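User: C-alpha cells in, sequence out, please.
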C-alpha cells in the first residue's frame, strides 16, 4: 500500500481543496488528483464528490477514512520502532535554530535527545529567522527551531514549544527604569540597540512602529546579545528584545521593563510534511513527548 497516496487522501478530506492539499504536501494538483484516482481505481469506489466545485467525501469515503487514518498511525509507529532499532547505527539529524535557543526548552530537548540516542549524529547550526524559513525548504535540513508571530503554516508540521513577549531593556540609572511598563512612543527618542532582524516585515514590532509613526534611531544592529547587554550596562541606549532571550547575570545595571501593548511570539519546531525519515520521526515524537510531560 502506497502511504503517500493514503496521506493525500487524509489531507484532502481535511482541506477539501486540491490546491491547498497540493501546497501542504509539496505536490502538484495533478499529482494529488492522480493519487485519489489511483486509490479509487484500486478499491473500485468513489472517494470524493466534486459537484459544484466542492470537494467532499462520499458516504463510502467517510467509512474508509478512519481505517486509513489508523493505518497511517500504525505506519508512523512502525517507523519510530525502526528508528529506535536502528539507533545503534549512525544516522544524521540536521537541525537549524535561532541563536538564542539556549534560553529555551528546545535546547534541553535537543541535548536530552542526543544523550538518549548517542548514535544519532546531530548537525546543528544557528541562523536568523528569515534564513531559517528558507532553510526549511532545503532537502538537507530536517527540522528548524524558530520564532513565529502568526498562525501555523499549514504546509509544515508544527510543535509549539513556548511563548515569549517583548520587553524593553534599559539602564537602571535611566528615568525609563522607573516605569512599570513602556510603550514604543515612550522610547521613540532613545538610541536603540537591536538584534539583527528585530524589525522586519514578519515581525509585529515593525507594525507597532508604523502605527506609532516612529522612525527608530538604531545605533547598533547585530547578532551579539552580550554586546547589547554590555552597552546597556554602561548606560548606553535601550533595547527591545524577547523576554526569555537573554540572561542579566553579571549585568547589574540593566533592567527589563514590559513593552505595551504586549507583542507575543511562539517558539516552534517546524518540519516539512515530506520529511518522514525514521530518525526525523524519532526526534519529532521525542520532542512532542518532552513538551507534553513538561506541561503536566
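Assistant: Sequence out:
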Amino acid at each position: 500500500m502506497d502511504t503517500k497516496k493514503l496521506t493525500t487522501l487524509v489531507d484532502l478530506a481535511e482541506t477539501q481543496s486540491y490546491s491547498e492539499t497540493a501546497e501542504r504536501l509539496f505536490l502538484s494538483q495533478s499529482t494529488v488528483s492522480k493519487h485519489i484516482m489511483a486509490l479509487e481505481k484500486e478499491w473500485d469506489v468513489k472517494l470524493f464528490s466534486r459537484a459544484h466545485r466542492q470537494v467532499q467525501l462520499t458516504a463510502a469515503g467517510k467509512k474508509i477514512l478512519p481505517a486509513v487514518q489508523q493505518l497511517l498511525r500504525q505506519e508512523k509507529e512502525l517507523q519510530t520502532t525502526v528508528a529506535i532499532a536502528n539507533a545503534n547505527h549512525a544516522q544524521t539529524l540536521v537541525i537549524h535554530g535561532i541563536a538564542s535557543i539556549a534560553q529555551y526548552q528546545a535546547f534541553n530537548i535537543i541535548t536530552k535527545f542526543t544523550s538518549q540516542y548517542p548514535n544519532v549524529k546531530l548537525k546543528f547550526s544557528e541562523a536568523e529567522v528569515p534564513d531559517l524559513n528558507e532553510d526549511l525548504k532545503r532537502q538537507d535540513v530536517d527540522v528548524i527551531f524558530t520564532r513565529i508571530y502568526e498562525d501555523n503554516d499549514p504546509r509544515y508540521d508544527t510543535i509549539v514549544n513556548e511563548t515569549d513577549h517583548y520587553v524593553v531593556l534599559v539602564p537602571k540609572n535611566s528615568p525609563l527604569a522607573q516605569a512599570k511598563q513602556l510603550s514604543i512612543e515612550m522610547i521613540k527618542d532613545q538610541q536603540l540597540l537591536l538584534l539583527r532582524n528585530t524589525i522586519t516585515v514578519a515581525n509585529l514590532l515593525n507594525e507597532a512602529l508604523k502605527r506609532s509613526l516612529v522612525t527608530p534611531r538604531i545605533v547598533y544592529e547585530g547578532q551579539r546579545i552580550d554586546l547589547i547587554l554590555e552597552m546597556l550596562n554602561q548606560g548606553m541606549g535601550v533595547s527591545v528584545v524577547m523576554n526569555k532571550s537573554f540572561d542579566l547575570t553579571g549585568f547589574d545595571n540593566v533592567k527589563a521593563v514590559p513593552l505595551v501593548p504586549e507583542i507575543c511570539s511562539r517558539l516552534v519546531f517546524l518540519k516539512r510534511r515530506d520529511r518522514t525519515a525514521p530518525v526525523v520521526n524519532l526526534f519529532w515524537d521525542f520532542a512532542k513527548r518532552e513538551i507534553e510531560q513538561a506541561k503536566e
